[in-house]
Input
Amino acid sequence: MRQFFTIASNAFMELVRQPVFLLLMTCSALFSVFLGLSLFIVYSTWAAFRGSHYFFGNYISPFYSPEIFGDSPHNWFGPKPTWWPAWLIFSPALLVLWAPGGFRLTCYYYRGAYYKSFWADPPACTVGEPRKTYLGERSFPLIMQNVHRYFLYLALVFILILTYDVWKSLWFVDPTTGKNVFGIGVGTVVLAINVVLLSGYTFGCHSLRHLAGGFLDQFSKSPTCYRAYACVTCFNRRHMLWAWLSLFWVGFTDLYVRLCSIGVWTDWRIV
Ligand code: FES
Output
């Protein structure tokens, strides 16, 4: 009898071992995604509404760039306009952050990630839907996600602006002469890495891939499109990795500029 129970329990364990392992792996992966995205949303919302400590000398936080109106020397059109309604909260980040935020929110990778980790619909790939009519992203409100391709155009402009911010971060005011002199600080490196990671993420966008060559039937007729397509594909292969690295680093870049501005961290000069 004891032998029978041993064999039965071994058979049972063998049967459930793999599904339980897969279930635990899936849950922990989904929880990590949930946690990572939640932390970023909470921090970036807090930072965007602060409206202060977003620049430090020649550095500006990527959450606040371009600073259309604002109190820093980085502003494009002067300080907060006088016509701004008194009842409406003002922060330079709120004027621009909707564009990169919308780009991430509608990203094909993030869509899959937050559909699964935030409301488990679908719970995972290839898992059947518990309803008769599956409308997916072909009806309102999720059909709005198709706006992603337009956010891509804005994201490309933001890459140029953030690259210009890196250029500005190479010029420091000499306290003795008052002139701008070339230099590299740790903040310069932080801002530069941010642009590299955001570029890797943006240039691997599925919509950009389609734009580069997805509309062609024969690549042989357009070698330029083929090269562009191959380049985007190269970034696209690791789109998830670029997405997470750039998400983390853009938040860290804001934190770096903020803590330098408050005086908690010292920006060391390398050159
Ligand atoms: S699909 Fe992820 S950025 Fe476009």
